[in-house]
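Priority: medium. Attachment 1 of 2:
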């Protein structure tokens, strides 16, 4: 995929279209983010979270969106040298988040820490891929009578944080539902990094 895209750009290609799911889109982003191109998406099904946020319908209907050429510059997240478009997650991690002059950590053993670029109604409704910031959301989970109950999360808007593990064991971070990285990591925002074709039904 990388060779195909980079060869095309050398020959003058200015628009790259990814056909697939959210994972396909995430893979292409790490190839084109530092290139002078516009990225489009044709989703292959209705279960594409990124496509819904961008307002791109699935299959053949996406071609009309591509033809309209509504282009937005969106932020990307970056963990070490890997870009992400949607989110990064840590589940039940014994970690520290170094945030400006503070160190923040979960207060329960059962928890979920997620870094967001796009809004999700139940976790990070204020996230916006064009505001130059990301949101770190720490959500404790407590067990009550055999069931796990989520408590309202703490939201930390940021442009740069460092995530480390409290113990000797490294903690896994799942990026865009496909790439696993290990602590320690630096997470930053890359403002207006990607030119992407969006639809009129986009959520931002």
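Attachment 2 of 2:
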């Amino acid at each position: 995929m990388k060779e195909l895209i980079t060869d095309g750009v050398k020959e003058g290609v200015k628009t790259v279209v990814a056909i697939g799911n959210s994972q396909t889109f995430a893979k292409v982003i790490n190839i084109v983010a530092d290139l002078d191109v516009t990225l489009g998406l044709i989703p292959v099904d209705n279960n594409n979270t990124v496509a819904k946020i961008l307002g791109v319908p699935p299959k053949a209907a996406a071609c009309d969106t591509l033809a309209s050429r509504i282009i937005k510059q969106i932020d990307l997240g970056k963990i070490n040298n890997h870009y992400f478009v949607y989110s990064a997650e840590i589940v039940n991690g014994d970690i520290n988040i170094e945030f400006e002059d503070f160190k923040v950590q979960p207060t329960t053993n059962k928890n979920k820490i997620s870094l967001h670029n796009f809004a999700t109604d139940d976790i990070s409704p204020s996230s916006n891929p064009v505001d130059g910031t990301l949101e770190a959301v720490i959500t404790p989970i407590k067990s009550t009578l055999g069931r796990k109950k989520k408590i309202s999360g703490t939201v930390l808007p940021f442009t740069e944080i460092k995530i480390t593990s409290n113990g000797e064991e490294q903690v896994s971070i799942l990026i865009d539902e496909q790439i696993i990285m290990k602590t320690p990591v630096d997470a930053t925002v890359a403002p207006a990094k990607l030119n992407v074709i969006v639809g009129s039904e986009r959520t931002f």
